[in-house]
Design goal:
Strands 8-7-6-5-4-3-10-9 form an 8-stranded parallel sheet. The protein is 41% helix and 19% strand. It is built from 12 helices and 15 strands. Helix 5 runs antiparallel to helix 6 (153-167) and helix 8 runs parallel beside helix 9 (242-255). It has helices at 36-49, 61-72, 86-94, 110-123, 138-144, 153-167, 183-196, 211-227, 242-255, 278-289, 307-310, 342-357; strands spanning 10-12, 15-17, 24-28, 53-57, 78-81, 99-102, 127-132, 174-179, 202-203, 233-234, 264-267, 297-301, 316-320, 324-329, 332-338. The chain has 361 residues and is α/β, with parallel strands linked by helices. It folds into 2 domains: 10-255, TIM Barrel; 264-357, Sulfite Reductase Hemoprotein, domain 1 (2-Layer Sandwich).
Length: 361
Amino acid sequence: MIVRQNTKQITIGDVVIGGDAPISVQSMTNTDTRDVEATVVQIRELEEAGCELIRVAVLDMQAAAALRSIRERISIPLIGDIHFDSRLAIAAMEHGAQSIRINPGNLGGEQKLRRVVDAAKVHGVPIRVGVNSGSIEKDLLARHGYPGPERPHALIESALRNVALLERQGFYDLKISIKSSDTLTTISSYRQLSAKTDYPLHVGVTEAGGLIAGCVKSSVALGVLLLEGIGDTFRISLTRPPVEEVRAGFELLRSLRIRQRGPELISCPTCGRTPIDMFSLAQRVEEYIQTMQTPLKVAVMGCAVNGPGEAREADIGVAGGKGVGIIFKKGKLYKTVAEEELLEVFLRELEKMENERQGGI
């Protein structure tokens, strides 16, 4: 059983973070924030996939001003990501950002930081203190060296130093993230940070890579941390469309039995006995179930002889045969269908099952 670290609670929009609140999945848009339409379209896709918090880059005043129109058209909390410019942080909050991500130490000094904090207090905006390995202060690097698994001290001390800057301004409505592109450094850093603070933590591996490398690195690091009860929000950072980050995030939570959203797909890896195009069939089914909410187990198997038995725990499944396929439920034959109609009929059965589970019919 996972025992969560006891962290403070903050609220961003209507999402509670920390304490015993559910671990939330977030992502970041890759659109130009100044393009309101494109940004809204992408955020709505992320909402459909289950994204619970969305961060957008605030590049300039035009981007900050666009936040108001964006927020009016989306349903999840909007976070402004700001680097270096305190004026952008203030403008983002004035135009509706429900949280901001900053590195307090690089905003240009105490006076500018005070203005940001004052604005955050006025607008009720929590701050995420975000520090990564590439932004550590020179004196900390000189003292501790570049962060690694054995010595992540510079990263941790940088984060706590920046938190202290906010605390001296009487501001405590915050969460912390410390990012590294190295898996073991990420694990070590968050373990030690968690022992030193009770602020909620946003966890993630930064610059993790493409679909395969990014998912593997993130799942290793975040899997370890979440199993140890460390982490209140997270992002799986991928060089891919953001919606894939959210899908991977929920699969990670499902695999750890922390949270479950929508169906779980079980599919065989194929072998020489597979008589149908399993790759296409599995891909189409996987795409469809992303739109479903019911926590079903759905199987796509290549062999009509062994498939139902191998996936007997599935609520519903499909298996291919030569010229025909079968649909099965809990390992037992439910329907035999011509191969060319198999996908269409199976998707209808999925829709019907979800309606039944949700009381729609």
